[in-house]
Amino acid sequence: MNFDDIKQLLELVREHDLAEFEMEQDGLKLRVRKAGDHPGVPGVMVPQPVMHAPMPVAAPAPAPAAAPVAAVPAAPVQDEGTPLAVIKAPIVGTVYRAPEPGARPFAEVGTMVKKGQVLCIIEAMKLMNEIEAEVDGEVAAVYVENGQPVQFGDRLFAIKVS
């Protein structure tokens, strides 16, 4: 059986409006079913309802260069009479405590920092955002590890205000 023979059989099925035709010849089995409204019949396509999901709204493109991000305002806390400023994550992302892998961290417990000094970097959507100290003082606590994901408002550092 060649392509022309199959083509002739399909024309006959169409011509005689047959719903199904089956033939076996020389080890070749050919079955033709006409698609139609036959629910429950295997091999026949049945129309299915289509569900449409709402289209997502495109977010604005991020700025090409990342400027330093102001941390969530430091909340002074009392620790044995010494006021503490807690620096919190202003964005969601991944914290990097050093400028590059293998380098010393920007700040560790006991480091004296000045207002505006970089404490860490938070990577968000391939942009590196520098998180700066809001006050002068000594780093009293580091709440995050290098490479740790953070959410908006997570504590990053506590600084003893001087």
Question: TL;DR?
Answer:
With 162 residues, the protein is mainly β. The protein has one helix spanning 3-15, and strands at 20-25, 28-33, 72-79, 82-88, 93-96, 112-113, 118-124, 127-132, 137-142, 149-150, 155-161.
| Record field, number of beta strands | 11
Give the N-terminus to C-terminus distance in angstroms. Answer: 94 Å
User: What oligomeric assembly is this protein in?
Assistant: single chain
Largest sheet, in brief, is:
5 strands, antiparallel
Sequence stretches where pLDDT stays below 50 over 5 or more residues: 44-59, 61-65, 70-79
Shape estimate: rod-shaped
User: What CATH first level of the largest domain would be assigned?
Assistant: Mainly Beta
Indicate the CATH architecture of the largest domain.
Beta Barrel
Examine the coordinates and then state which fold CATH places here, giving the name of the CATH topology of the largest domain. OB fold (Dihydrolipoamide Acetyltransferase, E2P)
User: Roughly what fraction of the amino acids lie in strands?
Assistant: 35-45%
Number of helices: 1
C-alpha Rg (nearest Å): 34 Å
State the fourth-level CATH superfamily of the largest domain: RNA polymerase II/Efflux pump adaptor protein, barrel-sandwich hybrid domain
